[in-house]
# Entry
Amino acid sequence: MSAPALTPADSAIFDEDVITEMEEHLDEPIACGIETCEKEAAWRVSLRCCGDSTFLCTPHYFVSRSRLGWSLIWAGAAQCAVCGTVFRHPMSYDAIVRVVPL
Ligand SMILES: [Zn+2]
Ligand SMILES: [Zn+2]
# Structure
């Protein structure tokens, strides 16, 4: 079985415009990085391999945690979609992703 591709939020990848826009609105609450989500972000999660990061609300943070956990258990590995680093079971979420509360 091939390793599923991994991003900090599984689907959220920021392009330059979004990052610029975020920097312009630093005083405002940061929105969750999941496109369909309108909640305020509560966590900044970044991949330790390449530093690719995103902001997540608490529910999506837990979704990302459990999805990565299940990928490691069921596929035996997960691969970073940005730099290609492969993480293998039994690495923990916290060994792969750095989490900073906002
Ligand atoms: Zn990476
Ligand atoms: Zn969210």
